[in-house]
Amino acid sequence: MPVLNRIAGYADDMTEWRRWLHRHPELGLDCHQTAAFVV
Predict the structure, then answer these.
(1) Taking 80 as the threshold, does the pLDDT of residue 11 lie above it?
(2) Average pLDDT in the 7-30 region?
(3) Which residues contact 26 (CB under 8 A, 6 or more apart)?
(4) Neighbours of 11 (CB within 10 A)
(5) Which of 3, 14, 28, 39 has the greatest number of beta carbons closer than 10 A?
(6) Number of domains within the chain
(7) pLDDT surpasses 80 at 1
(8) Is this prediction's pTM over 0.85?
(9) Are the beta carbons of 37 and 20 closer than 8 angstroms?
């Protein structure tokens, strides 16, 4: 399926995003860095 192939193309990027978020945890409601990363 073309959609699955396109999604699979982002697998390495998504893995790196997850790792970055786990390397830079923010606790509670103080999530400015995470919010900036997501946007």
Answers:
(1) yes
(2) 92
(3) 32, 33, 34
(4) 9
(5) 14
(6) 1
(7) no
(8) no
(9) yes
DSSP-derived letter for residue 26 is -
Distance, in Å, from the CA atom of 9 to the CA atom of 36, rounded to the nearest integer, reads 24
| Closest to 38 in 3D by CA, of 24, 19, 17 | 17
Counts for the chain of helices (H) and strands (E), in that order: 3, 0
Unique residue bearing structure tokens 């699955």: 4
In contact, 21 and 37? CB cutoff 8 Å? yes
Q: Which residues constitute the domain of residue 20? A: 2-38
Distance CA 6, CA 17 (A): 17
